[in-house]
Amino acid sequence: xxxxxxxxxxxxxxxxxxxxxxxxxxxxxxxxxxxxxxxxxxxxxxxxxxxxxxxxxxxxxxxx
Length: 64
Known about the structure:
Elements: E1 21-23, H1 29-37, E2 42-45, E3 51-53
Antiparallel strand pairs: 1-2, 2-3
């Protein structure tokens, strides 16, 4: 069984497996828009540099 994600690090890199990822800037406008429709967020790994799409949009704590 895998250990739980550290707080604030809910997305793991598919290449190297680290939790150290961040939201990625928009690069491929059409692809990013399409993936947003399917609840995917562009992310980038801070360790290996891979850009990928997460499996879900982040939940905002202050959403009322």
